[in-house]
Write a structure and sequence with these properties.
alpha/beta, about 280 residues, 8-stranded mixed sheet, binds nickel (II) ion, 9 helices, two-stranded antiparallel sheet
C-alpha cells in the first residue's frame, strides 16, 4: 500500500507544448475543446456542476440514427491528464464524416478539482471512479453522483461500447482492462493492447492492483468503476486503457488519441461483422 502514496497525494502536471500550457490548465483545455466541438457539430449537455465547475457530456448530433452508439471518457483521476488532452487531439484530427457511421459521446473532464490540482482524488478526497454499482461498498463521489443521476442518458449513449482513458502514473508500461461477453478476449481487447504496444512496452505478466495482467490485458475484471458499471448496464464491450505516466506526456497524448481511433474502428468492424452474419 505504501506505493499508493505518491499516486494519491502527489501533484502532477506536464507541459502541453501544442497549446503552450500545462496539463492542469482546464480553462485553456475547455476553450480548445469547445472550438473543436463547434467545428464538428457536437453539442454540450451539462450533466451537473460542483464548486469546481460544469461536468459536461458532448454528443454528436446523430444520436437518433441507427448507427452504433459509443462513449469515450477521460479525466476521472486528476493526475491522469493525457486521456483528456488525447481526446482533444482526437477531435482536432477528426473529420465530421466520422459521424455518418457512429454516434459518439465524449466525457472529457470528470474530476475537475483533481485535474486542476494534478491530484488523483477530488478536493474532498473521494475517488471519482468508484461507487457506481448499487451494492457498492464504496459510496459514489460527488462527480459519481452526477453521472449516476444520468444513468439513462449514459446507457443510451453506450449501447455498442465505452472506452475510459486512464493512466498509471507509477509505471513505464501500458495495459488495458477490457470487458467482452465472451470467456476470452477477442479482437476488440487485443487490438487495444496492440495499439498501445506501438508506443510503450506492455505490462507482460504481473499483478496490478490485485488483478492478473497478461500481455497487457486484464480481462473481465468487474469492480465498482464507471466502465464496469456501463458494461453491466448493457454496453456490448467496455475498456479502460492505462497509459504509463513515467513516459513523456506528448507520447501519452498521441497514444490516447490512437487508442480512441482503434476503439472506434473496432466498434465499426464488430458492427459490420454482425450485419454480415444476420
Ligand atoms: Ni485512473
Amino acid at each position: 500500500m505504501t506505493d499508493l502514496k505518491p499516486r494519491e497525494k502527489g501533484q502532477h502536471s506536464w507541459p502541453v507544448h501544442a497549446f503552450n500550457t500545462q496539463s492542469n490548465d482546464l480553462a485553456s483545455f475547455r476553450i480548445a475543446f469547445n472550438r473543436q466541438a463547434e467545428r464538428l457539430g457536437i453539442y454540450e449537455i451539462v450533466l451537473g456542476n460542483n464548486d469546481a465547475g460544469n461536468i459536461s457530456l458532448y454528443q454528436s448530433a446523430n444520436q437518433d440514427a441507427d448507427v452504433p452508439h459509443i462513449l469515450i471518457a477521460a479525466g476521472f483521476h486528476g493526475e491522469e491528464a493525457a486521456g483528456c488532452w488525447g481526446m482533444l487531439e482526437f477531435l482536432c484530427r477528426c473529420s465530421p464524416d466520422l459521424f455518418d457511421n457512429v454516434a459518439v459521446s465524449f466525457l472529457p473532464l470528470v474530476n475537475l478539482s483533481g485535474l486542476s490540482r494534478g491530484q488523483r482524488l477530488n478536493q474532498w478526497g473521494e475517488n471519482p471512479n468508484r461507487g457506481f454499482t448499487a451494492d457498492s461498498s464504496e459510496m459514489p463521489s460527488r462527480e459519481g453522483e452526477i453521472l449516476l443521476r444520468h444513468a439513462e442518458l449514459l446507457k443510451n449513449a453506450t449501447g455498442q461500447g465505452v472506452l475510459c482513458c486512464h493512466e498509471d502514473i507509477l509505471r513505464d508500461q501500458a495495459y488495458v482492462y477490457s470487458f467482452e461477453r465472451n470467456t476470452g478476449p477477442g479482437p476488440f481487447s487485443t487490438g487495444l493492447c496492440e495499439v498501445l504496444s506501438h508506443y510503450f512496452p506492455l505490462s507482460e505478466h504481473e499483478k496490478i492492483d490485485g488483478c492478473d495482467c497478461e500481455q497487457g490485458l486484464i480481462f473481465n475484471h468487474f469492480d465498482l468503476s464507471f466502465e464496469s458499471w456501463l458494461f453491466t448496464l448493457g454496453a456490448d464491450v467496455a475498456a479502460c486503457s492505462e497509459t504509463p505516466g513515467l513516459q513523456p506526456f506528448a507520447q501519452r497524448i498521441e497514444a490516447n488519441c490512437s487508442v480512441m481511433c482503434t476503439f472506434i474502428s473496432a466498434i465499426l468492424e464488430r458492427n459490420r461483422t454482425k450485419a454480415g452474419i444476420s
